[in-house]
Amino acid sequence: MLPLKRLDKRKTMKITKLEKKKRLYLLELDNDQKLYITEDTIVKFFLSKDKEISEEELKEIKEFAQYSYGKNLALYHLSFKARTTKEVRDYLTKYEIDSIIIDKVVQHLTEEKWLDNRQYARNLIEANLLSGDKGPVLLEQKLQQKGIPKSIIQEILADYDFTEVIDRTAKKLLKKYQGKYPLKAIETKTIQGLIAKGFSYSQAKIAFQNLEVETDEETTNELILKDIEKQYRKYSKKYEGYELQQRLTQSLARKGYDYTDIKSAISEFLD
Questions:
Q1: Nearest 5°: phi and psi at 15?
Q2: Which end of the chain has less neighbouring CB within 10 Å, N or C?
């Protein structure tokens, strides 16, 4: 095994070119080495054309240049909107920034309050409370996908009351279904809709019970007769008599109609 070559701190190289290229600067040395550096790197090391640097200085320049480049990339990414630590790490990894450099960048941005996972979670939850429709379960999933630990999310979620959110969402769902379905179906669809939004079954059940659901006999009768006509066209081609009535009854029951209403409507329709 060959011995490692030690850096000769006395050996120097001269900068032959220092030229701006879009966001970075191209630095060329008289030994044909080339590297891209940031403006911060130029300022920190007082770099200029014809300056001589040692191999040790070149190593420091390369390390700082990547750190500076990574920090600038991260700040650019953060300039559009708030991000979590994971999102910034993933972004820098995409640009092939060394993992050790990423750790340093993230530490710096965290110390400077550019990155704050707890505050990010609170901002997302509070925005949802103001005008959103998502429950705790869905928010927890979303925040976990962004790299925030489950324990932290649950701790923060415990500080908030979602009553207004679920009531607001339940009213929207009721408006969507009322007048189109029987009461039982409205309840089922509303509760299912709330669960899909991230609320528990018990929360959804209570929210539905708090709604002012308007139903009248005339509307229910119109709906059931409309559904009977549709189902009759489907089943009358294959069935008749008692079997046809059974098929219609089962189909309407699955839609949430009351058995008494079904029996009365079928009798009226078939007479």
A1: -75, 120
A2: N
Decide which of 41, 76, 111 is a domain's last residue: 111
Question: How many domains does the chain contain in total?
Answer: 3
The amino acid occupying position 267 is S
- Residue 49: predicted pLDDT: 92
List, in order, residues 6 or more apart from 50 with CB less than 8 Å away: 14, 15, 16
Tell me, yes or no, whether 32 and 96 share the same domain.
yes
CA dihedral 208, 214, 219, 224 (to 10 degrees): 20
pLDDT of residue 269: 80
Q: State both tokens at 244.
A: 């046809």
Residues 238 and 247: their CA atoms lie apart, in Å, by 10
Backbone angles phi, psi at 13, to 5 degrees: -130, 150
Alpha-carbon span 87 to 145, nearest angstrom? 10
Q: What is the pTM of this model?
A: 0.76
Quick one: pLDDT at residue 162? 97
C-alpha 71/C-alpha 117 separation (Å) is 18
Residue spans of the chain under pLDDT 70:
1-10, 216-218, 271
The amino acid at residue 76 is Y
pLDDT at 10: 53
How buried is 169 (Cβ within 10 angstroms: 0-12 exposed, 13-18 middle, 19+ buried)? buried
- Helix (H, G, I), strand (E, B), or coil: what is residue 210? coil
Q: Assess if residue 90 is contained within a domain.
A: yes
